[in-house]
Amino acid sequence: MNIDWDHVKDACTEHGRELRASLLNSTAMQRVSGFGRDEDGASGVLSFYTTLMLLVMAGLGVDTMRQEMERTHLQSTLDAAVLAGAGAPQGTDVQGVADIVEDYFEKNDMSEYLSEMDLEGDDADIETSLNATRVYAEASMDIDTYLLQMTGVDELQANAAAEAQVATPKLEVSLVLDVSGSMRGNKLTNMQTAARSFVTTILGQSSPGDSVISVVPFAWNVTPSPELFDALTVTNEHTYSTCIRFDDNDYLDAYIDPDRTYQLQEFTSRYDDGFDALDPWWRTCYNDENAEILPYSTNEAALHAHINGLTADGNTSAHIGLKWGSALLDDEFQDVVDELQTAEVVDASLDHLPAVHGEAETLKIIVLMADGQNTTSYYLNDNGSYLGSDSDLHKVTWQDMEFDYAWRIRKKGGIKTSDDPSKCSKKKWTCEYTAVGDAYSAYYLYDAGDDRYLDIEASWGLADRNSDGYEWVSSDDFDDFSELDGTGGGQTFVSSEAVSWEIAWGLISPDFIDDIIGDYGPEDDFVNQQTHYGSKKDGLMQNICTAAKSEGVVVYTIGYAISAGGNAETQLETCASSLNHYYPTDGAGISAAFNSIASNVKNLRLTQ
C-alpha cells in the first residue's frame, strides 16, 4: 500500500481552512479573533495540525492492522483448503480436488474471495498422479478503511497464495522383527497382529507396486531364503543352512556386496538331543522356512502368511537383523533383485529396485522391533582346529550284494551257467553278485584317547548318555571294513572318509563330543574363543544404524516391554533416526506403535 503524502498534506490544509472558517462564523468569533491577534496563536495552529497528523497516523495503523488480520485469516483458510484438496483420496480427479478447495471456502462463508483456479494446460493449478497431488490457489479481499478515508484511501487489499503437495512416495520398507525365545506367547501374537496391520496400512495407502516390504526375522542369526542366498557369493562348506558370517568391519557399510565372497556360518548347536538331533533352541542358524527373510513383497496375503508363521526361539542378535534390513534397501542389491525376479520370487514388474539412495520419489524405512537387549551368541574359532579340516567323525559306506548266477568253464570248451546259489560252495564254480538298492552309510566317532571308534548309530538309543553301554569298534576292526567285498553275499565296502568339521557339526554338537568322548576341546572352542556377548553386538548394531542413516534411511525402533532407561532402551533410542522415532510400548500397545509409524509414511508437506 502506497500513501500519497502530498495528498495528505493538502487534505489537512483544506480541513484546517474549513475548520477556521467555521470558527470565525461562530458566536465565539471575538475570542478566536483575539486569539488570532495574540502572538501565541501561531503555536496553537501548529498544535492543531500536529494533532490532525497524529490522527491520520493512528488511522493508518488501525487500518493496516485490520488489513493484516484479514490477510492472515485469508491465508490460513487458503492453506487449510489447499491441504485438504491435496489430501484428497487417491483417484480423485482434478475437478474433484478443485471442488474440495471451493467447498472449504464455502463452509467458511468466504467463497467470494477465492480466485478462479486454472484446471487445464501446462501451468494448471492442480496436478494429480498415482502417488501425488499438487494444488495451487490464490485469494483476495477488499477491506473498507475507517480513518484512512480522510486521506482519500477508501479501501485496502489483502492477498494470499498457497501451494500444497501431498506425496505418497514410493516406499521400500525393511520390517526387522525380534523372534528370539523371549518373544514366545502373547508377545509374539501381539507383534504379529501389529505387523500385519502395518503391512495392510502401508500397502493400502500406495498405488500397486509403489510399496515393497521385506520381512527380516532375527534371533541368534538371520536366515536368507535359498533364492536370496543363491544370488550372493558365499562359501559352500555345508548345505545345512544359509546364514552368513559377517566380519566386524561389515557393519560399517549399509550394504552387502553381491560380488564379494562371504563366509558361510557353521551350522551346529550348543547342545543336542542325540546324533543328528541338534537342540533347536541353541542352533547357530535357524534353517526352518518360517525363519527365512521374505524379500521385496507387494503381496499382502503373502506378507501376512509369513508373519503368521513366525516362531520364537534362541538368543538376540539385532545387529545382524539390521545389517540385512539395511542391505535390502541398498542399490547394491539391484542385481540380486534381478536374480530374484528370474527365480519368480520378486514380482517382475518392479523396476529399479532397490532405488538409488537419495532418489527424490523413494522413501526407505527400517522398522526395528525388539523386546530386549542383545544376548550371547557362540561361534567356532575360524582360525582354530575345528573348522576347515577333517574331523573325528567318519562316514563308512556299504552296498548290499545279491547272488546273480554261477558259472564254470567246461573241459570241452564253452561256459555253463546256473541260477543255483549252492554252486558257490563247490569247486570250479564262480558266482557273480550284483549290487542292489541304494548304498548306505554309518557314522563312527573316533576317540583318540582310547584309539577306538564309537559306532554312533548302532549305539545310540541302546543306552543313556554317559554310560558304558555304547558299542565301540577297535581301530583294527574299523580298518577291516575295507576288506568286505560282498563275494559271499551281504555287504561290500564302498568308501570310508573323515568328513569335514563343517559337515560333522550339522550332525553332532561340541557338547556331544565332550559328553560321549570326554574331549572338552571343541566345546571350549565354541563357547569361549569367539563368543559375541551383548556388549559387542551393541557396538556393531550402532555401527550399522549409523551407516544406514547416513544413506538417508529413516530408522524407527520399537522397544517392546523393555525396562525404561535400561541398556536395551538406550540402544534402540540411539539407533533410531531421532528420539521421536523411538516407540516404547507394552502389551497390546505395540499395535499403536506400528500404526503411528505407518501414519507417518505418507509425506504431507506444505511447499509454499
Entry keywords:
six-stranded mixed sheet, 608 residues, disordered C terminus, alpha/beta, 23% strand, elongated
Describe the structure.
The chain has 608 residues and is an alpha/beta fold. The chain is 34% helix and 23% strand. The protein is built from 17 helices and 19 strands. It has helices at 5-24, 29-37, 41-86, 94-107, 186-204, 226-230, 300-308, 318-327, 334-342, 456-459, 475-480, 501-504, 510-516, 521-529, 534-550, 567-575, 590-599, and strands at residues 126-128, 132-144, 155-167, 170-178, 211-218, 233-234, 244-245, 261-264, 294-297, 362-370, 390-409, 415-418, 430-447, 452-455, 472-474, 490-500, 554-560, 582-585, 603-606. The strands form four sheets. Strands 9-5-4-10-17-18 form a six-stranded mixed β-sheet, with helices on both faces. Strands 11, 12, 13, 14, 15 and 16 form a six-stranded antiparallel β-sheet that branches. The chain has a four-stranded antiparallel β-sheet with strand order 1-2-3-19. Helix 13 packs antiparallel against helix 14. The protein is elongated. Residues 18-38 and 603-608 have low confidence and may be disordered.
